[in-house]
Structure formats: C-alpha cells, structure tokens
C-alpha cells in the first residue's frame, strides 16, 4: 500500500507506536496536525506569510482543496504536493479564507485543534489505511482504538524521516520527510517527545525547519504555551 499523499495523514501514521500497536500518547497531536495542514498549504503556494501573518493565495482551479480523491494514490516523488483530497487542508484553507483579518500562524495551529485528530483519523479510515474500533467503557464512555493496516508502509515513512534527520544536505532534502521531521519535533510526538532526542538533533532540525516553513515555529510556540498553561494549572 502507498502512503496517503498529505502531510497531516502521514504525520498521523507516524504518531502510531508500532511496538505497542496503538497511538503514541501525544497531547499536542491536534496542534501538530493543524501545523501539518498549514505546511502543506504553504508549500503548495495556497498560503503565504506576510509579516508573520497567514494570507490566502487564490488557487488555480486544479489545486483547490476538496474532500474527494482516490485513497492510496501517492504523491509524485520529488515534486511539490498539492493539498487536494485532504479534509484538514480543505477545512483550514476555508477558515483562513473566511477570516475577516490576517492572523498569526500560531492562531491557526491552535484553532479547532481538538477536532483535527478525528478529521484525519476518519479520512484514513475511509481510505483503509487504518482500522478504527469504537466501543464504550462501562457502557457509557466512548473510546476508540486505531490499528494501521500496513505496518511496512509506516516503517517506510519512519525510515524516510530518519534519513533526512541523519544524512545529506538539509537544503536538498525531500520537503515531505523534512517537514515531517520538523513537525514531529515541534509537536513532541513519538521518539521526539524526549527532550534529549530533540537536543541531540537540534542543529539538524534548525536546518530542516526552513524547508518546512513558518507553521513549524508556530507549532513549537503553541506547544510551549500549552505546557506553560498546564504547569500554571498544576501549581494553582
């Protein structure tokens, strides 16, 4: 099976723990998925940065995001992806276009982050990349468990990210894996949840971040803001 073509969908799959057969505990996954959608749109030329604010760019008709597409169709190697057929990208570009003012990247990373995981999960389930089991705990509390259908495909995604983290000129790195590496670190997902791991790769990540674009530092700021709020709440 080919991986899904969009950054949000690939990031969701990378948040799956292949050893424990479950999603990693990733409290900032929703923010990271929103940042992945913003990165996808930025790299496709549908969003631009204007003094730290997000500005929509009128797309050509064939590049307009929509909710339809062929599941499992890969992005062409070495070419810039277009955010077609991705629900979260379509949602984000709609929100930015409907806004009465240009807002910061962090604003859009945080907005509706609580529902981002469900949006991406449901699309992956519909495309048969994952299997979702829905149940109720004690007959009352809804719960879901996710299982990836093609473990080898997820391993390939991990290898691609590892390759850009550990070899080759950062400026020549494939923007897809480079962006995923930067998003995983900024969102503290999987192995990148460890501060030690992030510090060990600090120099490399600093080189990869410009490849991804402005949504990555916005994600890092949003995560730090959430952590500060959690610490203040615990202290209070």
TrEMBL record:
Segments for region (Disordered): 58-83
UniProt name for this protein: GPP34 family phosphoprotein
Highest taxon listed in the record's lineage: Bacteria
Subcellular localization: Golgi apparatus membrane
GO CC, alphabetical: cytoplasm; endomembrane system
Topology of this chain in the membrane: Peripheral membrane protein
Pfam families given in the database record: GPP34
Example GO molecular function: phosphatidylinositol-4-phosphate binding
Ranges of Basic and acidic residues composition bias in the record: 60-69
Key words of the record: Golgi apparatus, Lipid-binding, Membrane
